[in-house]
TrEMBL record:
<keyword id="KW-0949">S-adenosyl-L-methionine</keyword>
<keyword id="KW-0479">Metal-binding</keyword>
<dbReference type="InterPro" id="IPR034505">
    <property type="entry name" value="Coproporphyrinogen-III_oxidase"/>
</dbReference>
<keyword id="KW-0004">4Fe-4S</keyword>
<keyword id="KW-0963">Cytoplasm</keyword>
<dbReference type="InterPro" id="IPR007197">
    <property type="entry name" value="rSAM"/>
</dbReference>
<dbReference type="InterPro" id="IPR006638">
    <property type="entry name" value="Elp3/MiaA/NifB-like_rSAM"/>
</dbReference>
<keyword id="KW-0349">Heme</keyword>
<feature type="domain" description="Radical SAM core">
    <location>
        <begin position="31"/>
        <end position="278"/>
    </location>
</feature>
<keyword id="KW-0408">Iron</keyword>
<protein>
    <recommendedName>
        <fullName>Heme chaperone HemW</fullName>
    </recommendedName>
</protein>
<dbReference type="InterPro" id="IPR058240">
    <property type="entry name" value="rSAM_sf"/>
</dbReference>
<keyword id="KW-0411">Iron-sulfur</keyword>
<dbReference type="InterPro" id="IPR004559">
    <property type="entry name" value="HemW-like"/>
</dbReference>
<comment type="function">
    <text>Probably acts as a heme chaperone, transferring heme to an unknown acceptor. Binds one molecule of heme per monomer, possibly covalently. Binds 1 [4Fe-4S] cluster. The cluster is coordinated with 3 cysteines and an exchangeable S-adenosyl-L-methionine.</text>
</comment>
<comment type="similarity">
    <text>Belongs to the anaerobic coproporphyrinogen-III oxidase family. HemW subfamily.</text>
</comment>
<keyword id="KW-0143">Chaperone</keyword>
Amino acid sequence: MPGTPITADPAPTDGLLPDTVAQTIKIAKRSGAARTFSLYVHVPFCTVRCGYCDFNTYTAEDMGPGASRTSYADTAIAEIGFAADVMNASDIPARQLHTVFFGGGTPTLLPAADLVRILDAARSQWGIAEGAEITTEANPDSVTRESLWKLAEGGFTRVSFGMQSAVNHVLDTLERTHRPENVPTAVAWARQAGLEVSLDLIYGTPGESLEDWRTTLDTALQLQPDHISAYGLIVEEGTKFGAAVRRGTQADTDPDDQADKYLLADTLLAERGYHWYEVSNWAHDPDRRGINQARHNVAYWRDQDWWGVGPGAHSHLAGVRFWNAKHPAAYAQRLTTGVSPAIGRETPDAEARRLERIMLGVRLSEGLAIADFDDDEPLDRAEITKLIADGLIDGAAALRGRIIPTLQGRLLDDAITRRLAGF
């Protein structure tokens, strides 16, 4: 998307943050609008790298000192200690963790005891707020009844299973390691352990019919998860899928096909009491009480604060963004030598922040508050009127002061962003 380029600077080796971070957090607290603080823990290990995946993941079990599956928990714990020291030295007020999310990769390739040790280290450094959401991603074939019980006993509250599809040939195309029958077993184990359950689905895989997608949705709904995410497959550069599409050996995705599948998903999910709160996410909330939303992701979309632990992990504190060395060995080596694992840092300017606020806001069912944009750069009222006329945003909501996409608008949220941003 066009806009003012953001120039990244090298991150300081001591990790210290600009004075503006502490000042912003203190001002927000005094005003009664305290910023929440979350933790993301990236676990980069996978048994197989799926052909569509462009995440920072690795299939090797051992990539050197501090970068093996067996030593990774200690490395992550070292960064948690480093992060706490940096925030103390930067005079950032102490805050308990609002949410914790273990992503990857496949976090549950680590022993449950290691994941709990990492969580315990975070609890020791910052504390965890009462009722906090604590999630781990998992593949349906990477857990056991016993491992899920250990996670629940250790403080985890939620597991997000990468189901993707209930159809074998679609899973084969995606190069997923599990079979459809793994999913209900894993969900049942999670329920027995008292964990909330989310299912991640992918639609639009080449070769997937509309009926295949209906089968996946029906199967997921039969399991009665608390939350469902559904993402249209994106063929990314640098992936095996991307190379196959360029060679012509793999069909590309079809935007019209994906639109049809999104509409089917929204219809079937709504019929069963799941309501969208972000373009790709639905919470089981038949009475519309705002329950079962993925609070960690909501914190991202609302521009709150988080520290990202792990190779390639990104962090955000009061408008300052920074990110770690990508390769696990390089990441671990920096921590071992007492150097910040962060290698880059940026502070987006006013134009970039405005664009981001629009982009995130128009993805949410709560929408974008028109009044939040200052007089210097107000939203274009004429463009808002045109978006209403085009059926992309809710006219009644706009009269109440909020930009909320219609169903058609959800399919074209990038276009809404461009138009509101003046591109």
